Amino acid sequence: MTEPEMQQQVMEMLMCLRRQSMQDIANGPAHADGTPEIDSMTAVWVVSTVGRAFDRPLVRLSNVRRESLRSVGGVAALIRQAIPAQLVIGAA
Fold this sequence. Notes:
mainly alpha; Non-ribosomal Peptide Synthetase Peptidyl Carrier Protein, Chain A
């Protein structure tokens, strides 16, 4: 998945979690990176939910820069970096 595709997936997860439209989420407060802001608890939920799809934690949250957990873009980048390439290749 490309960075924009991963951001789209995170946004769709937020839609379900918050029961809001994509437009409502996109029109919320923006982070300095230009993507919607999210609180750290929501970011942890997104990362752990994606990790369950791989049957293992993707990252050790104590080692993650806090800034990565404050925006859709940061969470998407964190997930992309954490997914081992061999798992993605094997999934095709």
